[in-house]
């Protein structure tokens, strides 16, 4: 099949077995040139193994890797148009900033004059011009991060592979670096392949996210699609907070299913898929999709019932209420948002929660991932 210039990376039927164990399982995917592509999944799902195959540190058991329309399976790591940024940045502590960035350029035989020019240019682009003579130990965590990225980008790779590069930073710096990384990727236009187990990193930065589980991609989609239209229960649970309940389908009519949760609460859920009667589904509703009002008040909503507050996890606009269905004992997490005052809410407070059918999704328990 002819490779497509639209893509910088195409993987076909890519697998990696370690003896009997399959770490990466027949992956088929493409990454658009100039995009930010994240691979998101729990520890042990195969992310690093996949990245190492792309970089050439691990050879595939089956399948093909094409970078910019060329098969690279047989190419050594240093011959691939790829660079990698690790969690522990591997900057040389005994060299200053300029020497760190110059290292790869020297190995490529770039002359001193041109090196200085490229170093100045890349430092300007990462916002650190003037730090050429600083020692690595004189830099903050975020500055080190930018130097590590500058050192890779100065070599103008087709693909930049990033292996949890924010994992070693504290929370505040991580938040800041998420935005910076996204800006850097846009500024340079290099294709980024970013692996992480942190869904917020993947959602904030990516054009596309592949959610990986047991060596396979469950879904490859934009952050919004993953969040609002997860294809599988794993994706619904792994991406963002959600309330999940197992339920049985009682009836389905005109795109709406009537379900009964294991504890007996009837729920109405919009569905595009035919759900057979009596089939078992998972029903998901996001905490922020649930409205709150005073207990007993009838509102215009497909689903509504009274609850008792079990916990009020106050955190300003990001507060969460954990509530329990007064009749059927199912628990829900509700994100009331800034407009609902939690001033008088305590454990034991009675409220009503409500949501419309289209704000919940149901996924048949048999549904499996894509590739
Ligand atoms: N060289 C190896 N030999 C045998 N098994 C391996 C080897 N490398 C990885 N594995 C196994 O393959 C699976 C996937 O590992 P991998 O490091 O790719 O996961 P990961 O998603 O990157 O996890 P983490 O987020 O914890 O780094 C794990 O079960 C791991 O034990």
UniProtKB/TrEMBL annotation:
Annotated InterPro entries: AAA+_ATPase, ABC_SmlMolc_Importer, ABC_transporter-like_ATP-bd, ABC_transporter-like_CS, Mo/tungstate-bd_C_term_dom, P-loop_NTPase, Transp-assoc_OB_typ2
Gene Ontology process terms (BP): quaternary ammonium group transport
GO CC annotation terms, alphabetical: ATP-binding cassette (ABC) transporter complex
Pfam family, one: TOBE_2
ABC transporter domain location: 9-239
MF (Gene Ontology): ATP binding; ATP hydrolysis activity; transmembrane transporter activity
UniProt keywords, alphabetically: ATP-binding, Nucleotide-binding, Transport
Protein name: Putrescine transport ATP-binding protein PotA
């Amino acid at each position: 099949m002819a490779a497509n210039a639209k893509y910088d990376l195409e993987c076909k039927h890519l697998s990696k077995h370690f003896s009997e164990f399959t770490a990466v399982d027949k992956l088929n995917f493409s990454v658009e040139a100039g995009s930010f592509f994240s691979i998101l999944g729990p520890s042990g799902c195969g992310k690093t193994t996949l990245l190492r195959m792309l970089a050439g540190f691990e050879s595939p058991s089956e399948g093909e890797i094409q970078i910019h329309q060329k098969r690279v399976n047989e190419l050594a790591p240093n011959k691939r148009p790829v660079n990698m940024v690790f969690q522990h940045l591997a900057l040389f502590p005994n060299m200053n900033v300029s020497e760190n960035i110059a290292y790869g350029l020297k190995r490529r035989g770039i002359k001193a004059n041109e090196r200085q020019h490229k170093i100045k240019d890349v430092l300007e682009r990462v916002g650190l011009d003037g730090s050429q003579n600083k020692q690595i130990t004189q830099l903050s965590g975020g500055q080190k991060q930018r130097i590590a990225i500058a050192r890779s980008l100065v070599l103008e790779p087709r693909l930049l592979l990033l292996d949890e590069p924010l994992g070693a930073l504290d929370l505040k710096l991580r938040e800041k670096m998420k935005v910076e990384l996204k800006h850097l990727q846009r500024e340079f236009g290099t294709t980024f392949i970013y692996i992480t187990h942190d869904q917020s990193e993947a959602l904030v930065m990516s054009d596309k996210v592949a959610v990986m589980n047991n060596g396979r991609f469950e879904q490859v989609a934009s952050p919004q699609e993953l969040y609002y239209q997860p294809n599988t229960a794993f994706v619904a649970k792994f991406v963002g907070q959600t309330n999940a309940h197992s339920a049985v389908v009682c009836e389905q009519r005109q795109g709406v299913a009537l379900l009964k949760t294991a504890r007996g609460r009837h729920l109405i859920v919009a569905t595009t898929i035919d759900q057979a009667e009596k089939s078992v589904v998972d029903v998901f509703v996001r905490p922020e999709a649930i409205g709150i009002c005073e207990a007993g008040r009838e509102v215009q909503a497909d689903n509504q019932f009274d609850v008792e507050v079990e916990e009020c996890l106050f955190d300003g606009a990001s507060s969460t209420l954990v509530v329990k269905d007064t009749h059927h004992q199912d628990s829900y997490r509700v994100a009331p948002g800034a407009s609902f005052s939690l001033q008088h809410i305590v454990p034991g407070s009675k409220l009503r929660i409500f949501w419309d059918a289209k704000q919940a999704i149901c996924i048949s328990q048999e549904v499996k991932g894509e590739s």
